[in-house]
């Protein structure tokens, strides 16, 4: 067994009885070396536990073929599906990813960006917290390629990809109205995120189009988690608000809301109809199954990487904004 912390190509050359140059050519899959020699060198490298030195590789190529991905919560099934799209695209184009979570904390986002840049990633895909935006200025000033995912940045012109949030919220609210519901509560995310702002705009637009007066007392705010959706719905019920429909910022909030309604013996959808947003896998398996707005999560991740790849390979210079279509998925909760 090899005692050194890191195995070098010099160690491989010595063990295989070949030159350092031959080892380098084998490890970099160069054509001018016999398959037999290449196979032998790769076997020796594996046996010794060789790990490629990306720092040295960066010094030579000025690229690592690694990108940083910063998400607010990769355990959230929405982001898990987006991440799958990013990973598939990265593999297709010969890249690897380093993933970091922010838990919706701006300071954690700043730290993640700093750490990934220290690791010399070639570029970044970020689902930003959006309480502040100084980190984008830093990236733009340093000319670091990055793509904003799931959010719209209004103060800077950057590469970004997100869903048609206004349209999605309009479809959700309109569907509740068309099922005969008139008193509609919205449980939104906090308004520092662009998605929350645009979904509130879509909700208001649908109410206006169907001559229902907007009442700010019918809009509540929640972090995008099941527990928070549950607590906020309990609060709405405690406040004695009269409502027959709930439109939730995401499916997790909606699942929490349905639990709270069930505990109060409120029938879904007869007494209160519920619509979520995202169409995560759980939505079809809760009881009743959840009506929701389907976002192209995998496609969003895949396209986000392709947008970044275009920047990395200088195939596109101007920033691009991509807006993906959404779809209403009708299920038992309405």
TrEMBL record:
This chain's source organism reads Thermosipho atlanticus DSM 15807
| GO MF annotation, one | transcription cis-regulatory region binding
Domain HTH lacI-type as annotated: residue spans: 7-59
Q: What is this protein called?
A: Transcriptional regulator, LacI family
Q: Which UniProt keywords apply?
A: DNA-binding, Transcription, Transcription regulation
Q: SUPFAM superfamilies, per this entry?
A: lambda repressor-like DNA-binding domains, Periplasmic binding protein-like I
Pfam families, alphabetized: LacI (PF00356), Peripla_BP_1 (PF00532)
Q: Where is the signal peptide?
A: none
Concerning CDD domains, the annotation shows: HTH_LacI, PBP1_LacI_sugar_binding-like
């Amino acid at each position: 067994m090899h005692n050194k912390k890191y195995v070098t190509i010099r160690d491989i050359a010595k063990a295989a009885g070949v030159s350092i140059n031959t080892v380098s050519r084998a490890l970099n899959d160069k054509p001018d070396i016999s398959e037999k020699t290449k196979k032998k060198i790769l076997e020796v490298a594996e046996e010794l536990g060789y790990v490629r030195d990306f720092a040295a590789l960066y010094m030579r190529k000025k690229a690592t073929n690694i990108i940083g991905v910063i998400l607010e919560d990769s355990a959230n099934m929405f982001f898990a599906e987006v991440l799958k799209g990013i990973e598939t695209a990265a593999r297709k184009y010969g890249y690897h990813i380093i993933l970091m979570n922010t838990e919706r904390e701006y300071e954690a986002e700043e730290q993640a960006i700093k750490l990934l840049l220290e690791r010399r990633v070639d570029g970044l895909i970020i689902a930003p917290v959006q309480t502040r935006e100084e980190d984008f200025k830093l990236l733009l000033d340093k000319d670091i390629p990055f793509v904003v995912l799931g959010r719209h940045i209004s103060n800077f012109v950057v590469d970004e990809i997100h869903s048609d949030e206004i349209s999605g919220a309009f479809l959700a609210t309109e569907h509740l109205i068309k099922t005969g519901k008139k008193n509609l509560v919205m449980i939104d995310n906090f308004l520092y995120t662009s998605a929350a702002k645009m979904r509130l705009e879509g909700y208001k637009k649908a109410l206006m189009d169907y001559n229902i007066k907007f009442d700010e007392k019918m809009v509540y705010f929640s972090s995008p988690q099941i527990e928070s959706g549950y607590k906020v719905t309990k609060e709405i019920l405690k406040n004695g608000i009269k409502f027959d429909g709930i439109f939730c910022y995401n499916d997790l909030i909606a699942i929490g809301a349905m639990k709270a309604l069930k505990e109060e013996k409120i029938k879904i959808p007869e007494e209160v109809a519920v619509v979520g947003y995202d169409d995560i896998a759980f939505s079809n398996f809760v009881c009743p199954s959840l009506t929701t707005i389907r976002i192209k999560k995998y496609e969003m991740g895949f396209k986000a990487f392709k947008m970044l790849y275009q920047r990395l390979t200088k195939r596109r210079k101007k920033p691009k904004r991509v807006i993906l279509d959404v779809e209403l998925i009708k299920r038992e909760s309405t």
